[in-house]
Design brief:
mainly alpha; about 200 residues
């Protein structure tokens, strides 16, 4: 009785305004999701960053979180093994083939250890890739041997740099099991990056 404007009209206006704002955000989100690059190199970063809790969006994920680390490490580990096998089959350069074999051996071992930890902690690890990673890997499988060698080794240098940073943070985790796993795996990752740099520098 104290308002000059009927309350139902006010509530309706607020609802319509809120709906318009929400709609704008949903539209923008869809636009961003639909933007994909045709350049495989532009997806290299995404392949590491896509290791996450919901397997599709890394935004807002805290890398200090134990479960988040486990999910990122799991996807990264699966990727290294699969690409390592692809390198053994498709690479032209013998050093690249050997590097791929090392990736399969070392990351299979680390993946097995991580799965055991996940079982102990009742954490469900992802068993598939985000769409952008799967697309990138499919594109790599269609490259010429020479192009594959250059792309793969460049990616391995960049990806292992990010892996090392991720595992260094996990080494400081309050969870003793996670900290021990990360600390144990770090020298292996550093060795991978060093060898990747050496091979990459020889490719033209």
């Amino acid at each position: 009785m104290f308002s000059n404007q009927p309350e139902p009209y006010t509530m309706k206006s607020k609802f319509l305004y809120s709906s318009l704002i929400l709609g704008a955000f949903v539209f923008q989100a869809c636009q961003n999701t639909n933007r994909t690059s045709n350049d495989p190199d532009s997806l290299t970063t995404a392949m590491v960053d896509s290791a996450q809790v919901d397997q599709s969006d890394t935004s807002g994920i805290n890398e200090n979180d134990t479960a988040s680390f486990m999910h990122k490490a799991a996807i990264g580990g699966m990727m290294e093994v699969e690409l390592g096998r692809l390198a053994q089959q498709q690479a032209e350069n013998s050093a690249v083939k050997e590097f791929g074999a090392m990736m399969v051996k070392d990351h299979t071992k680390a993946n097995t250890e991580l799965k055991a930890i996940a079982t102990e902690k009742r954490v469900t690890l992802p068993n598939s890739y985000p769409a952008d990673i799967k697309q990138h890997m499919d594109e790599m499988s269609k490259m010429t041997p020479k192009d594959f060698d250059k792309h793969y080794m460049k990616m391995m240098v960049e990806d292992h740099a990010k892996d090392i940073n991720l595992f260094k943070m996990a080494a400081k985790d309050n969870d003793a099991t996670i900290s021990a796993f990360a600390t144990k795996t770090l020298p292996v990752l550093e060795g991978h990056q060093k060898r990747a740099k050496e091979i990459n520098s020889t490719l033209k």
